Amino acid sequence: MDIKETIKNKKACGILVKALGHPSLVLMAEEAGMDFLFYDCEHGTLSYEQIHDLMVLGNASGIPSVVRVPQLARADVSKILDYGASGVMVPMIESREDARKLVSWSKYPPVGQRSYSGGANTHYGPSGNHEENMKKMNARTLTIVQIETMKGAEHADEILSVEGVDAAIVGPCDLGISMGIPDNVMDERELAVIGQIAEACRRHGKAFGIIGSMKLIRYFWENVDLIVSAIDTNLLRDGMKHAVKACEE
User: Fold this and answer.
1) pLDDT given for residue 1 in this prediction
2) Annotated catalytic residue within 22, 43, 123, 242
3) Domain that holds residue 151
4) Cβ-based neighbour number of residue 181 at 10 Å
5) DSSP characters for the chain?
6) 22 is an active site residue
7) Backbone dihedral angles phi then psi of residue 189, each to the nearest 5 degrees
8) How many domains does the chain have?
């Protein structure tokens, strides 16, 4: 259930959840062998309360949750971890200071300054045992910077040098937009920039991930640790098209 341990041993595969809030999603993901569920609070429609309930079930079922919060804000970062997330990612990280803030709010002392509260993150257990709980949660919490602008790419080395940052995930769509080439993530110029981010991750001992097509992920297969290609809405759409085609045939 520890996502950090998983990516030490294999390439971890997850599904991006934007719309489906039913608990059956967690059970089907676990049965299918997904390594984690990746909830999108930036572009998705699920509320924090819905995600809390899904993550509690996921933690009980042995499938960890990673959440992209909508912005770099203490309330968003700390709250989603208190709700039981195994990992948190903030979009549009562009500087060392951005990364330091993320670590400060996602990790307990002595690494960060996260405020302590029991709850879903401590499996609603009894109060107390703060020091041991903080140590365990710091060890298992995956703090992820999302690099998806040229400014972020240019500062990748300083971002990834921050203690407490565990991984970087590339957002190829927004990266392409920031480069002025929005419609072809396989453009050689964008591939070169993504490659530089992957190399920075390796230099600093951080995991590297991509949210994108399997074509792009295959291109960086030797470097990628976190794979997010499937999206719940796309799976539904493709399944419906398959059903219609089967009926027509």
Assistant:
1) 66
2) 43
3) 3-248
4) 14
5) --HHHHHHHS-EEEEEESS---THHHHHHHHHT-SEEEEETTT----HHHHHHHHHHHHHHT--EEEE-SSS-HHHHHHHHHTT-SEEEES---SHHHHHHHHHHHS-TTT--PPP--SGGGTT--S--HHHHHHHHHHH-EEEEEE-SHHHHHTHHHHHTSTT--EEEE-HHHHHHHTT-TT-TT-HHHHHHHHHHHHHHHHTT-EEEEES-HHHHHHTTTT--EEEEEEHHHHHHHHHHHHHHHHH-
6) no
7) -65, -40
8) 1
Residue 136 has pLDDT above 90, yes or no: yes
CB-facing half-sphere around the CA of 12: CA atoms within 13 A: 27
- pLDDT tens-digit map of 139-151: 999 999 999 999 9
Burial zone of 157 (CB within 10 Å; 0-12 exposed, 13-18 middle, 19+ buried): middle
Q: What is the CATH number of the domain that holds 53?
A: 3.20.20.60
Residues 170 and 147 sit within 8 Å (Cβ to Cβ) = yes
In DSSP terms, 15 is beta-bridged to: 37, 230
pTM, full prediction:
0.95
In Å, how far are 36, 55, 64, 241, 249 from 234, measured between CA atoms? 18, 22, 22, 10, 22
167 CB neighbour count, 10 Å cutoff? 23
Answer whether 75's CB lies under 8 Å from 97's CB.
no
Encoding tokens for residue 33? Answer: 């062998």
